[in-house]
């Protein structure tokens, strides 16, 4: 795949380091926390976007179970399977040369116990080339997180609004208010003790996220958690303006929905009028 994008900015590539070669690793992530460097993470589900994001200097890409919604059109993350996520992860790995690629363990692939978690996480590393996996929950999945780390599989945690538990949470709601904040902090510390290299904090009060970040030696990655986290993640379609009704925490950095709609209408008009293909688009 050819490199068509411009060189990443110094700000975007601070985590890479001027002498860093090869893939970003969990050690690089830990070093960034110690240096106080902030960094960005995006979702990606195919080789083309992965290549663009990698060239732009995004150090960590997440093949999220959000693909259930933004790729497959489901109303939640619950339906997607490991067998659907592995080919996407393979494509993202092939499309990158520097970014660490983290794969989501989908709903039902790790909750039943350590053996299943190990089997499915190992599939991601063996079959797709993923460099780490992410699972949702705190103390309730500590046995699984510990076992994965002990087996040599880097683990990213996920606390706060955990979309795989949306039915028990009563919808997509802010988590960690009041006394629940203390419980979330305990969960975060438990994940750190289990060996997780980072923790996503989704839809939690900014003050709580800042307190958790200060309490951990591993980085926090915020999504709807304020500016106090060590890193920030967005679903790339939200970031680029493809989602017409993004969440409050989303900042649209482009309006690709309008760009694609305009291009599509112009293409259809040109075909209908006979303007496309023109002579220069034909072979002789």
Automatic annotation (TrEMBL):
Keywords: Cytoplasm, Magnesium, Metal-binding, Pantothenate biosynthesis, Transferase. Its EC number is 2.1.2.11. It comes from the Bacteria. Its cofactor is Mg(2+). Its main location: cytoplasm. Catalyzes the reversible reaction in which hydroxymethyl group from 5,10-methylenetetrahydrofolate is transferred onto alpha-ketoisovalerate to form ketopantoate. Pfam families: Pantoate_transf. CDD domains: KPHMT-like. HAMAP family: PanB. The keyword Cytoplasm applies. This is 3-methyl-2-oxobutanoate hydroxymethyltransferase. 3-methyl-2-oxobutanoate binds at residues 65-66, 104, 134. Mg(2+) binds at residues 65, 104, 136.
């Amino acid at each position: 795949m050819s490199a068509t994008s411009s060189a990443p900015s110094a700000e975007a590539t601070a985590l890479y380091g001027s002498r860093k070669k090869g893939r970003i690793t969990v050690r690089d992530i830990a070093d960034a926390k110690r240096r106080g460097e902030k960094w960005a993470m995006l979702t990606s589900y195919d080789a083309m976007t992965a290549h663009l994001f990698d060239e732009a200097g995004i150090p960590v890409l997440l093949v999220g179970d959000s693909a259930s919604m933004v790729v497959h059109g489901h109303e939640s993350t619950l339906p997607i399977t490991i067998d659907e996520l592995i080919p996407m992860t393979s494509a993202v790995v092939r499309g990158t040369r520097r970014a660490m690629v983290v794969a989501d363990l989908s709903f039902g692939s790790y909750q039943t116990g350590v053996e299943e978690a190990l089997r499915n996480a190992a599939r991601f590393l063996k079959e797709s080339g993923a460099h780490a996996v992410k699972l949702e929950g705190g103390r309730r999945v500590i046995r699984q997180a510990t076992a994965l780390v002990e087996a040599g599989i880097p683990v990213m945690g996920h606390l706060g609004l955990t979309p795989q538990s949306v039915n028990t949470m009563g919808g997509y709601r802010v988590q960690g208010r009041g006394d629940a904040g203390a419980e979330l902090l305990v969960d975060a510390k438990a994940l750190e003790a289990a060996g997780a290299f980072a923790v996503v904090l989704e839809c939690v009060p900014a003050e709580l996220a800042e307190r958790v970040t200060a309490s951990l030696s591993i980085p926090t990655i915020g999504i709807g958690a304020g500016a106090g986290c060590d890193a920030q993640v967005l679903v790339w379609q939200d970031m680029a303006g493809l989602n017409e009704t993004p969440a409050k925490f989303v900042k649209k950095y482009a309006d690709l929905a309008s760009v694609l709609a305009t291009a599509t209408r112009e293409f259809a008009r040109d075909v209908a009028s006979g303007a496309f293909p023109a002579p220069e688009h034909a072979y002789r």
